[in-house]
Design goal:
Elements lengths: L13 H10 L5 E6 L2 E7 L2 E5 L8 H8 L3 E16 L9 E4 L10 H4 L11 E16 L10 E17 L2 H8 L6 E2 L1 H8 L3 H14 L2 E7 L2 E6 L4 H64 L1
Parallel strand pairs: 3-4, 4-6
Antiparallel strand pairs: 1-2, 2-3, 4-5, 6-7, 8-10, 9-10
Length: 296
């Protein structure tokens, strides 16, 4: 592997360096400046970026580079993690325990909420790597009060369990499952996938942001979604909705006709009264004038 003079590798985290070694190929160039950014790997015209945490921190970089370049984004997800606490003093020893928290490939949604508009970008490909890792922590009483002073120093790669490529929102739907109804809520996503409700909500947010699904209404407080892509199911549901709209329009027309008939009837009833009153007033006026005419 040919390496260029690079920036930042001296302070590179263990997990980041391990993943770079895992995905690199002969001829790759490392830490290369492209436009106004430094990229992890440049493979011909392809940029390979390794992002171990928040996609939000590289949002501007992605938008700028994707306009003219193809990018492969590498993201690790810790399926199993061991917490290693370094000794606080010479009297103590390091401890290591397994974290009860486990993540699956669906954890990608918690990162994609920062860039949902890029999910279907033709120049972007995301590779998910499911890993086992050690999380190294050291004690600093002035920091991380929620962890009682234990600060994360770094993450170390132990093993790779699985890999998956995300090229479009269709690949994200494959994570959810194929049993989603035509119209669905986040509760349906959670039920079909087996995820918790928060992950289901993140998935809906990402898919809506990418334009893959749209809102159709509400069921109580729950938003109802459906896929925007044309499909036989969607077509049949559209036909049903059009039929409903026509019947509703017919009912509305009947109501309008009935209302107009009532109005005409009321007018015809009141019209004779008005005519008769005018006629009566004319007759009274004529009677008043008639004596005066005779006397003259």
């Amino acid at each position: 592997m040919a390496a260029d003079p690079h920036i930042g590798t001296l302070n590179e985290a263990h997990l980041h360096a391990s993943l770079k070694e895992l995905v690199s190929e002969p001829g790759d160039r490392f830490e290369v400046r492209v436009d106004r950014f430094v990229v992890d790997i440049l493979r011909g015209d392809l940029i390979v970026e390794i992002q171990t945490r928040s996609f939000g921190s590289m949002k501007a970089k992605l938008h700028a580079l994707l306009a003219t370049r193809k990018i492969k984004l590498i993201h690790p997800i810790a399926h199993e993690r061991w917490i290693v606490k370094l000794a606080r003093n010479k009297k103590e020893t390091d401890t290591r325990r397994k974290s009860p928290k486990r993540q699956g490939l669906e954890a990608i949604f918690s990162e994609l909420v920062s860039v949902p508009d890029l999910i279907d970008h033709p120049n972007l490909e995301i590779e998910l790597i499911l890993v086992q890792e050690d999380e190294i922590r050291y004690h600093d009483p002035k920091k991380a009060w929620r962890r009682k002073g234990w600060v994360v120093q770094e993450r170390r790669l132990l093993d790779v369990l699985d890999r998956m490529i995300i090229r479009s929102s269709a690949d994200l739907f494959s994570l959810i499952g194929s049993d989603l109804p035509v119209e669905f809520t986040t509760a349906d996503i959670a039920k079909v996938s087996g995820w918790n409700r928060r992950t289901a909500q993140q998935a809906a947010y990402c898919l809506r942001g990418s334009g893959a699904i749209e809102m159709t209404g509400k069921q109580g407080n729950a938003i109802i979604y459906r896929k925007t892509a044309d499909s036989p199911q969607n077509s049949s549901s559209k036909r049903k909705k059009k039929g409903t709209t026509r019947s509703e329009t017919g009912k509305t027309r009947k109501k309008k006709q009935a209302t107009s008939k009532k109005t005409v009837t009321r007018k015809t009833k009141t019209t004779p009264r008005k005519v008769s009153s005018r006629t009566a007033s004319k007759k009274r006026a004529t009677r008043k004038k008639s004596p005066a005419t005779k006397s003259s």
